[in-house]
Write a structure and sequence with these properties.
With 244 residues, this protein is an alpha/beta fold. It has one domain: Spore Coat Polysaccharide Biosynthesis Protein SpsA, Chain A. The chain contains eight helices and seven strands, in the order βαβαβαβαβαβααβα. A seven-stranded mixed beta sheet has the order 3-2-1-4-6-5-7, with helices on both faces. β2, α2 and β3 form a beta-alpha-beta unit. The longest helix has 20 residues. It starts with 8 loop residues before the first strand and ends in a 13-residue tail after the last helix. The model has no long low-confidence stretch (mean pLDDT 95). Bound molecules: guanosine-5'-diphosphate (GDP) and magnesium ion (MG). Magnesium ion (MG) binds next to loops.
């Protein structure tokens, strides 16, 4: 059997909504972190009403690997990620939050954790979380309930920093807010997953788009939805290929 070799080409997808002051510093960091890799940076501007789009277009002069896609109206983070993944030109995709809280220097760590059969490597912010106490507590509670109920072997699914296989992602059932359930969904389709400790930083500019209570209510509904999807999963083992 051929030994698994870590990908050398990568698409980085960053969903953003109203992150005008965060785009330039984060793109500079991604550029430095991925110097040794063939890569593209795909920003998906999700109906921002600040200068995010204009700043991204200006930055394209400086960064030829930067692509910019824009939704005419805001559709949310999951849909923005999906737009970026569909457009990605490489087989492996890393996602990052657009607010600078994830460190692009962690991307090579995620790549190094890939092995044969692994389709997703997720970041784990448990030891490094830089957020308000209310966010930290609600994250611990949400992650504990979710991992018990879905058995997804993942301590932190809310981390925006992830690496996954493009085809495997596009094969998953799609729904708004699915980005918080990727490990459970990948496992459901037969893939293996890993978690890797990553750093986490303060948000320097702008403000969070999510309210704690809204996120909790949506999360509870989605938890039951994903549990239902797990019950309806079938993994066929295909014996004959009639096309050969
Ligand atoms: N496309 C899109 N991205 C969003 C939306 N809300 C948040 N994001 C992105 O999701 C990431 C995390 O959002 P943030 O507001 O920092 O949430 P928090 O840090 O988890 O409280 C950032 O990259 C945001 O730009 C949205 O409505 N649409
Ligand atoms: Mg954030």
């Amino acid at each position: 059997m051929m030994k698994f070799s870590s990908p050398k080409e990568l698409s980085v997808v960053v969903p953003v909504r109203n992150e005008q002051d965060n785009v330039a510093p984060l793109i500079a960091e991604i550029d430095v972190a991925l110097k040794g890799f063939t890569h593209e940076i795909v920003y998906v501007n999700d109906g921002s009403n600040d200068q995010t789009h204009e700043r991204l277009k200006q930055l394209q002069a400086q960064y030829p690997q930067l692509r910019v896609l824009s939704h005419a109206h805001s559709c949310g983070q999951s849909t923005a990620v999906r737009t970026g993944v569909k457009a990605a030109k490489y087989d492996w995709v890393a996602t990052l939050d657009g607010d600078g809280q994830n460190d692009p220097a962690d991307i090579p760590k995620l790549l190094a954790a890939l092995e044969e059969g692994i389709l997703l490597v997720g970041g784990n912010r448990r030891q490094s979380r830089r957020d308000t106490w209310i966010k930290r507590i609600s994250s611990v509670v949400a992650n504990t309930v979710r991992s018990k109920m879905l058995r997804d072997d993942t301590p932190d699914t809310g981390c925006g920093l992830k690496l996954f296989n493009k085809a495997a992602f596009l094969d998953l059932p799609y729904f708004d807010h699915m980005h918080r359930f990727l490990p459970a969904l990948i496992k459901r389709s037969g893939g293996q997953i890993r978690s890797v400790h990553v750093s986490h930083r303060n948000r320097e500019f702008g403000k969070s788009n999510y309210g704690t209570l809204d996120r909790l209510m949506v999360g509870i509904v989605d938890l039951f939805g994903v549990a239902w999807l797990q019950r309806r999963a079938k993994l066929p083992i295909i014996l004959d290929d009639v096309t050969k």
